[in-house]
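One example copied in:
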Amino acid sequence: MYIIGDLILHGNAGVCRITDITTRDFSGADKDQLYYTVKPLYQDGTIFTPVNNTKVFMRPIISKDEAERLIDMIPSIHAEAYHSHVMRQVAEHYEVSLKTHNCEDLLELTMSIYEKKQIVEQQKRKLGSMDERFMKRAEALLFGELAAAIGIPKDKVPEYIAARVDGKLQRSYLPA
């Protein structure tokens, strides 16, 4: 069970803080059921989720050491662009990585879509909107968790990564 103040990854909401643990008076709900009150760090709103929830993914965020180890791995990751003429297959491939809620998978997904972007730009084309959408989702989840783990603002994560990998990663990979 989490405690008030814990930072967790909550489904697609990303990093959230547990702000309360209490019973809720929802119609049709068990009056003795405990709920986490969860506040996303990088978006507005409040989420109430049962303590014994099995439907929405939740886990503690990674530690600062894990975040720095992940960033240090970046130069050694060989990401390959995923291609298919069937858009549904591409979306399913991307969803698999997102649904693991694993930072390494999110990093590889982001880097593979970036690789695809480089390829299409060399062909004087634009990256597809679906690829862009998945890259933004993956970056939002990844950068949010890295920021919370390291203790920096989310918009400073690209600079932090660039400084940490000491120029080994192309700066154009990181959003401005």
